[in-house]
Automatic annotation (TrEMBL):
<dbReference type="InterPro" id="IPR051010">
    <property type="entry name" value="BCAA_transport"/>
</dbReference>
<feature type="signal peptide">
    <location>
        <begin position="1"/>
        <end position="23"/>
    </location>
</feature>
<dbReference type="GO" id="GO:0006865">
    <property type="term" value="P:amino acid transport"/>
</dbReference>
<comment type="similarity">
    <text>Belongs to the leucine-binding protein family.</text>
</comment>
<dbReference type="InterPro" id="IPR028082">
    <property type="entry name" value="Peripla_BP_I"/>
</dbReference>
<dbReference type="Pfam" id="PF13458">
    <property type="entry name" value="Peripla_BP_6"/>
</dbReference>
<feature type="domain" description="Leucine-binding protein">
    <location>
        <begin position="27"/>
        <end position="359"/>
    </location>
</feature>
<keyword id="KW-0029">Amino-acid transport</keyword>
<keyword id="KW-0732">Signal</keyword>
<keyword id="KW-0813">Transport</keyword>
<protein>
    <recommendedName>
        <fullName>Leucine-binding protein domain-containing protein</fullName>
    </recommendedName>
</protein>
<dbReference type="InterPro" id="IPR028081">
    <property type="entry name" value="Leu-bd"/>
</dbReference>
Amino acid sequence: MQKLLTSFGVAAALLAGTAIASAEENPIKLGHLSVHTGPYGHFGPHFDGASDFAIGLINENPPLGRPIQAFHQDWGTLGEGQVARRLVEQEGVDILYNISHNYESYRDWLLGFVAQNGRPAIPSVFAGSQRVEWGGTPEEPMFRGSPMDTAQAAAVAQHAQSLGATRVVIIASEDSGMQMSQDSAIKAAKVLGMEVLADIDIQTEQTSYRSEVARANSLNPDAILVFSQAEEGGIIVKNAAEMGMSVLFLGEPNWLAEEFPRTATMGAINRQKGVYIVGYTHSDSPAWDYFKEKWEASDYARLSPAGDSYTMQMYDMLNMTALAIEAAGTTDAREWANHVREVSMAPGKKVYSYAEGIAALKAGEDIDYEGVTGSYDYTDTGVVSGQFAAFSWNSPSEWEQTALIDGTAVLELDAAPMPE
């Protein structure tokens, strides 16, 4: 009898070992469209690290028992579309993570691939740059990890008005996402009754924007709203200071990168009437407490403060992606799309971390994931709301939150029609 039990024990151990080996040999592949070159290249280590942090926590108890394996690929040189194809066709990724401004150029190919192959799922913190009617379905399994860029731009205009601005100039880089933001800010400013004196486009990666800044200054605005990456914004503020200007500047979340104060210099920033960055903030909840403690105790904390918009949103987006895979019981993107709302919206047990969520799902419970940045109540096209706030730089390495911005009012402003 003892020999029989021993034989069963050995067999069970062998089977368990085989299952573990099988899971490790068949990971869930995640292709990360990262950026290490070009005007956004400084974000690459940050975005990779924030993603790896979340994946590390997920892999302590991975969905379907299969760890997530990340492939971080730079698209800054080759282009987003070409790198997306490489990840999907050559690496065979189950998840194409963080599609961005150039998604439209390869969208038709990608959706055809999804229809034929059932992969990849398309979660993205940057999909707010895409048309609001795209996503959120099995046919287009794209879900956003942050609000629409148009809403963020509306929040910039709303905060400018709250600071007393009535006459504004709006500057934007010549790329599709920034141009979308500029259009939204123009509309929002007009809805709010502000006068838009001019909208000015700038080329990326220039060493000076003195002529554009001089044109804006000649119009005597109360505020200049700028949609650009961090270094471009820094150059604009520095040029303004060099020209003796003192005006109210408002920028977008890219300006929370240290490249902004490093390029602008604190002297130029302090010379202005104000330099505010409108981004996203966290909710005061168990989700924030758990995340903040884990992040600050990790090796990744050197990459950004815990309250950084991108860091928080990537953490939440990856948590929901993994929980939806577990709920679906498969990595098939079409089935996954049917379960994203199931794990992120009521009804269900409120959970505040991936660990809580996966345990509840494996116990057969329905869940409602409450993220660091709040609730993820998706629309039919995978659009989500957020919590907006304004920030300012205190030093070259430290910023602080200066104001909360009414998210409900922002969404109403974003949805309002252009005044005649």
